[in-house]
Design a protein that fits this description.
Length: about 325
């Protein structure tokens, strides 16, 4: 990796503000119930958790949008929520965070995706998911495409954030990528297993190690296997860049000219990796929009992912925290 100038990074920081990023994908809520266990239920051999506090946060693509906001950008989340109490909570959170709801469509036939985690004595007791993974209807596909056709000229970039909950259909994927490329917009992808190889001709494709292994049917246990996987994805997808996240081993950047660069992880003490991928794709996209080259963008994204891993829970990255941490280091 080439040397990254601290002076250049801080010049880039000034350009982060007000970048307009659409985040298309599976909108979710993460609900937490925290309590303590003092007895076993007389009805079944299970712990009784006495709830002491509860709260709800953005999850999935909505957390990516929140990261864009805390990086001083202007996010436009685009997706579907249900006509239910969780959907009302989602809308309230958008208002609280001052995030646009223009791209959020409401369905009476599918629930808002919500993942409820019960925590006791700092232990994860159980998670309860309420969701639909059916593909969205043609009607909603058309509504989403119309939103992008109407707003594409005002956007700096599009993030496709796939959690395999049915929003990113093959038709949506191909049409949005085509629209972005026709309008010379940056388009970045955080994929999941379904439709993994449909994301062709994007700016940056960012899978994690397991996702790449599953999609390609390989194991990545050393640098040689890692390079094979990255170059194979470049060849299949015709992406400008592949950014492969490797957990505690950092990230690997693959360019269309065949260059491979590896960055070690920046997490000093890992507390929780939840949400780190959301932070990486958000920071990477914002940095590219701010004028960073791919090396500088990957450098910042790697640091951002490392920082959020040091805190328990899904916490978005703050712009000042990111640059202050890099400066101190």
């Amino acid at each position: 990796m080439k040397n990254v100038s601290l002076e250049n990074l801080f010049k880039l920081k000034q350009n982060f503000e007000n970048k307009r990023i659409a985040v298309l994908g599976d909108m979710m809520l993460d609900s937490y119930l925290w309590g303590s266990v003092k007895r076993i239920s007389p009805e079944a051999p299970v712990p009784v958790v006495e709830i002491e506090k509860e709260f709800t946060r953005f999850g999935g693509a909505a957390n990516v949008a929140l990261n864009i906001s805390t990086l001083k950008g202007i996010p436009y989340p685009v997706g579907i929520i249900g006509y239910d109490s969780a959907g009302a909570d989602f809308t309230s959170l958008l208002k609280e965070k001052n995030i646009s709801k223009e791209g959020i469509f409401i369905s009476e036939n599918r629930p808002t995706t919500i993942k409820t985690r019960v925590m006791a004595e700092n232990q994860h007791v159980v998670r309860v998911d309420k969701e639909s993974t059916d593909c969205i209807s043609t009607e909603f596909e058309n509504s989403i495409l119309e939103f992008f056709k109407k707003n594409i000229s005002d956007l700096d970039a599009i993030i496709l954030e796939d959690y395999n909950k049915g929003i990113l259909t093959e038709h949506i994927i191909s049409e949005i990528i085509k629209l972005a490329n026709l309008n010379n917009k940056i388009i970045t992808v955080d994929p999941k297993f379904h439709n993994f190889l449909q994301y062709k001709n994007v700016t940056v494709f960012k899978p994690n190690k397991k996702e790449a292994e599953d999609a390609l049917g390989v194991k990545i246990t050393n640098n040689s296997e890692m390079e094979y996987a990255g170059k194979k994805l470049l060849d299949i997808l015709n992406a400008k860049y592949i950014l492969l996240t490797l957990g505690e081993s950092g990230i690997a950047l693959f360019e269309e000219n065949g260059t491979v660069k590896k960055l070690p992880t920046k997490a000093r003490k890992v507390a929780d990796v939840s949400g780190a991928g959301d932070t990486v794709i958000s920071t990477l996209t914002m940095a590219l929009c701010a004028g960073a080259d791919i090396y500088e963008a990957a450098f910042l994204a790697n640091w951002a992912g490392g920082i959020v891993c040091e805190t328990a829970g899904i916490i978005p990255i703050e712009l000042n925290t990111l640059f202050e941490t890099i400066n101190e280091a």
